[in-house]
Amino acid sequence: MILLYILFFLSFFVLFYNYIGYGILLYGIIKIKRVFKKQAPAAAEFEPGITLVVAAYNEEDHIREKISNTLALEYPHHKCQFIFITDGSTDSTPDIIRQEPRIQLLHIPARHGKTAAINRAMPFVENPIVIFCDANTMLNREAIRNIVKHYKDENTGGVAGEKKVVAAGKADAASTEGIYWKYESFLKKLDAELYSVVGAAGELFSIRTHLFQPVEEKVILDDFIISLRINMKGYRIAYAPDAYAMEAPSFSMEEEHKRKVRISAGGFQSIVMLRSLLNFFKYPVLSFQYISHRVLRWTLSPLSLPVLLITNILLVVITPWLIFKLILAAQVLFYVLAMIGYIQAKQEKKSKLSYIPFYFLFMNIAVYQGFFRFMKNSQAAAWEKSKRS
Predict the structure, then answer these.
(1) How far apart, in whole angstroms, are the C-alpha atoms of residue 330 and residue 338?
(2) Which of 33-47, 172-186, 279-293, 312-326 has the lowest mean pLDDT?
(3) Which of 165, 180, 181 is nearest to 251 (CA)?
(4) Which of 84, 189, 249, 372 has the largest count of CB atoms under 10 Å?
(5) What residue spans of 93-221 are helical by DSSP H?
(6) How confident is the model at residue 247 (pLDDT cuts 50, 70, 90)?
(7) Tell me, what's the pLDDT at 174?
(8) DSSP string, 112-132
(9) pLDDT at 172
(10) What pLDDT is stored for residue 169 in this prediction?
C-alpha cells in the first residue's frame, strides 16, 4: 500500500515538474535574480567575421530560395563566408550552388551524414564565429547581427537561435508543432537567463570556431552534443529569440513521428555520451537545467505516464478518497481526447482541445520507440529528410 502511494505521487510529481513545475521554478528564481542583477553598460559596435555553414542533402526544391535568403542577410558581406556542403546528394543541388560564386561548395559523392559533413567543413572556416543552419529553413534578415551581439560577452561560447514553425508565411498558431516550439522557446529564454540554453537546435545555432571539437560520426544529435560540450568547457550558450529559422510544419504525422523517434534515439545516445553532466558537484547549475529540461523528458516522464494511470486505478479501487477519483477522471478524459486527436490527425483535421493531448502522448510514445532503436543500435546517424508542408 505504501509503495502504491509512493509510485503514484512520485510519477505525478515527475510529470508535473518536468512539463510545468520546472518552468514555474525557473521563473521564480529569475525574478529574484533580476533584483540583484546589475545593468550591463552599452557595448561598442561589434562586427566580427562570420562563417555560415549549411548542410544540404538533395534539396533541389529549396536550395535556390535558401541561396537567395542567405545572400540577403543583413551583415557586411566582406565579413561573411558562406559554405554549403552537399555530400551524397544525387539531385541537382550541387549544380545549382555552383552557379553562385559567393558560396563555397563542398561536395563528395559519398554520404556519411550531417555530423560528418560538419566535421569536414570546419577546417575551411576562416572566421571566429561559425553559424550552422539547415537548407530548408529561412532566416530573418537580422539573424546574423542578432546572434553576433551576444559574443560581446567573453563567457558566451555559443548562441542558439529560435525555431519557428510557419505556414502560409506566418506563424502557424493552429499547429500543435508550433505550440510546442513556442513553449520550448519560453523555456529557453528562462534557461538562458538563469545560466545557459541546454542544447541548441540544429535549425539555427552558432559557436566560437576555436571551441569546436570534431563529433563522432555515429552521433545523431550533433547540434545537441556540440553545444553541451561547449558548456562543459565552462562557457554558456546564449539565446537569441530575435534570430530565427522558419520552416513549415511536418508534411504528415508519419513524417513528424519519424523525426521524433530519431530525436529520442539521439537523446538516449546523448545521455550516455554526456553522462558526466549528471554530476551535480561538477556542474551544479548546468546539471540542474540539463536533468530538469532534457533528461527527465527522455527517461522518467514517459515511464511516469503508465505508472500514474495504473496506480491511480488501484487507489480508486482500494481507497474511498475523492481526490483519486477526480484525478483518474481527468486522466481518462485526457486519453479520450488524445484518441479523438489521433482519429482527427488521420483525417487531417486539427482541434487544439484534442490535438494537444494527442501530440503530448505521441511525443512520449516516440520516446519508447527511440529507446528501443537506441538499444538495438538501429538508428542511423545519416540524416533522413523529413517532408514539410
Answers:
(1) 12
(2) 172-186
(3) 165
(4) 84
(5) 93-98, 114-121, 143-148, 176-194
(6) confident
(7) 41
(8) --HHHHHHHHGGG--SSEEEE
(9) 40
(10) 44
Q: Which residues pair with 85 in a beta bridge?
A: 55, 106
CA pair distance 75, 71, nearest whole angstrom: 10
How many CA atoms does the CB half-sphere of 9 hold within 13 Å? 7
Task: Supply 291's cell numbers.
Answer: 536533468
> Can you state the angle between helices 253-273 and 352-376, rounded to 10 degrees?
50
Residue with the bigger pLDDT between 235 and 379: it is: 235
For residues 52 and 80, the answer to whether their CB atoms sit within 8 Å is yes
Owner of C-alpha cell 550552388: 97
- Mapping DSSP to helix (H, G, I), strand (E, B) and coil, where does residue 194 land? helix
Which residue has cell 484525478? 327
Q: Is residue 133 part of a domain?
A: yes
Domain count along the chain: 1
**Predicted pLDDT at 336:** 97
pLDDT, one tens digit per residue, over 348-366 is 777 778 888 998 999 999 9
Q: pLDDT at residue 229 above 70?
A: yes
Cα atoms in the Cβ-side hemisphere of radius 13 Å centred on 379: 24
In a domain, 278, yes or no: no
Phi, psi of 81 (to 5 degrees): -125, 130
Query: Each residue of 227-261: b (16+ CB within 10 Å) or e?
Result: bbbbbeeebbbbbbeebbbbbbbbeebebbbbebb
> Is there a domain that residue 41 lies in?
no
User: Nine-digit cell at 210?
Assistant: 576555436
CATH of the domain at 180: 3.90.550.10
The predicted model gives 225-251 an average pLDDT of 90
Question: What domain range is 114 assigned to?
Answer: 50-249
Mean pLDDT of the chain: 90
Burial 305-344 (b: 16+ CB within 10 A, else e): bebbbebbeebbeeeeeeebeebbeeeeebeebbebbbee
In-domain check, residue 65: yes
Alpha helix (H) ranges present in the chain?
A: 2-16, 22-36, 63-71, 93-98, 114-121, 143-148, 176-194, 222-232, 253-273, 284-290, 296-298, 300-318, 322-346, 352-376
pLDDT of residue 381: 62
Task: Return the SS3 of 387.
Answer: coil
